[in-house]
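queue> holo job accepted (carboxymethyl coenzyme *A)
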Amino acid sequence: MADDSVSAGNSTLTVRDNRTGKEYDVPITDGTVHGSDLGKIKTAEDEPGLRLYDPGFVNTASCRSAITFIDGDTGILEYRGYPIDQLAEKSNYLEVAYLLIHGELPSKEEYDSWEHQITFHTFVHENVKGFMQGFRYDAHPMGMLLASVGALSTFYPESRNISDAHLRHIQVVRLIAKMPTLGAWAFRHAQGKPYIYPDNDLGYAANFLSMLFKMSEQKFEADERLVRALEVLFILHADHEQNCSTNAVRSVGSSQVDPYSAVAAGIGALFGPLHGGANEAVLKMLRRIGSVDAIPDFISGVKDGNERLMGFGHRVYKNYDPRAQIIKKAADDVFEVTGVNPLLKIALELEKIALEDEYFVKRKLYPNVDFYSGLIYEALSFPPEMFTVLFAIPRTSGWLAQWLELVDDKEQKIARPQQIYTGERGLDFVSASERWG
Ligand code: CMC
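queue> job finished
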């Protein structure tokens, strides 16, 4: 459609259908046209209307949302209107989770009550432990997390009543509270170590570290700088508007299933290497490159289309990923405690070369949040398989904020995209016995 067909004055789009010569005025609201209005454009009354073909929803808004704002061109990310850098500097994960879920910052009483609720729902039913122990010794922790979160719906059958606001709130608290427990147990499982129960005297991130790393000591005391770095990472990963996993949560949630099943769908989506699995892929890539000298060869491979520079590029950010800048600072803080990760040298050089290379500049490919997060996680002694779990835990508050918004949104319907059918039609079925003789 030519730009001059856009009528700025009256907020409509005038479309001329050259197949019929008919003109249509399509209303423009919030910078969008409604898909169903395009559906009114038809060649004949009994024909299907015009549809949008948009694989990957590259230019399709699927909902209205007041949770997270992103301006990809200028690198802005805000939760409920608050810039990510301010939240990362001055807030903590539980306060940010409250903000995402409730829409505003808590008063002192509200925060204390929220913290108390989350802290006292960290334990899981003993049977959960039983079935987690049944996984194979080398089970990927994301697979274990996905399965155990889905299984929680069987422990809380009342969660299927999603029209009750109080019950919805209880499941939100349970999910945010239990994710670190399940994530830590998936980690311990792979190491053949006993699962550690939550320590409710500790804060959210400190308790998680305790469940991960505690051995025979009475109380696990993590270095405060590492606890803070983990809080910052959790804040940065808490929400990111309509990304692949959030879309999965909303899509599955639109069937009105319980939130455990919807969040399990989100975990499945996050597992993929183009989404949350990217930081695991970054580490593997850096290891494969192996040395600074090997970078030019690797870059040539990327430009020839044989490789992908993991941790670079983003569907939305075409200038820089504001999370990547904050994470670089968090990496310095962590390395101060743990010593520098030797792969950092390769990462820094790779970034330098890529940022100057025309291939990446032309395509607006910059480091994303995952380029450095893997290095931090590795410095914190996490194996690469745990990286996506460390993403899923904080993203749970974002998924749930989006799910709550979906449940209350009167405009939402069950997600059911259209297709362009490309297959055969009207074939006569020949039974197997006739076909095989
Ligand atoms: N390395 C090399 N080339 C790339 C990369 C990359 N990382 N990303 C995009 N390109 C190229 C792509 O080949 C294409 O080139 P051409 O126009 O010649 O065909 C062009 O850039 C546009 O790429 P696209 O695949 O159409 O972009 P997209 O918006 O569909 O994909 C992305 C976004 C994040 C999936 C992609 O950039 C990518 O695969 N990056 C690596 C994986 C990664 O780091 N993912 C983490 C994303 S941030 C965390 C999260 O939110 O999940």
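queue> DSSP finds 19 helices and seven strands in the chain.
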